[in-house]
Design goal:
This protein has 149 residues and is of the alpha+beta class. The chain contains 2 helices and 8 strands. The protein has a domain of 71 residues: Alpha-Beta Plaits (2-Layer Sandwich). The strands form 2 sheets. Strands 1-2-3-4 form a 4-stranded antiparallel sheet, with no helix packed on it. Strands 6-7-5-8 form a 4-stranded antiparallel sheet, covered by helices on one side. Helix 1 packs antiparallel against helix 2.
Length: 149
């Protein structure tokens, strides 16, 4: 599976992710990456955001996507979904804190039939910094995934 992820090409072959991926784990909008020839990436610097990925069968309704959008807006978050709405991705500033993000997403998910959600960037991943560390948190180890292959 491949995913086209919005990004800016910088000097020295570095890439800044400008939109959180909905299907790839390990990075979010604002992260600085080095991408290998094989498409795997290394997170060099965490940006100011975390991502929340959600999947649904049947597809999310327009109203369900809007409810999550409304719930995350006050945290500075935004939600994006393709027209078929079988998945979505939310980008939320890490300074909002894990407990506040969790509360909003859990509340929303409780009313959505067939939903599964996860952090695309998470303090449960051994190569990520805790969400509460906020903007510019450096990753202690490189994050690897198959982003561009």
């Amino acid at each position: 599976m491949r995913e086209l992820v919005p990004a800016r090409h910088l000097d020295d072959g570095l890439i800044e992710i400008t939109g959180s991926p909905a299907l790839v784990m390990g990075c979010a909008a604002g992260d600085l990456l080095r991408v290998g020839e094989d498409g795997r990436f290394e997170v060099l610097r965490r940006g100011p955001n975390v991502s929340v990925q959600a999947f649904c069968d049947p597809a999310f309704s327009v109203e369900e996507v809007q409810r999550l959008t409304d719930g995350l807006r006050s945290l500075g978050g935004m939600v994006e979904a393709p027209p078929h709405r079988r998945f979505l991705v939310a980008t939320v500033p890490s300074t909002a804190g894990r407990s506040r993000i969790d509360a909003r997403v859990h509340h929303w998910a409780a009313s959505v039939r067939g939903v599964y959600w996860q952090y695309g960037t998470s303090d449960h991943q051994p190569d990520s910094q805790p969400i509460e560390e906020g903007p510019g948190a450096e990753a202690s180890e490189a994050s690897q995934s198959d982003l561009f292959s």
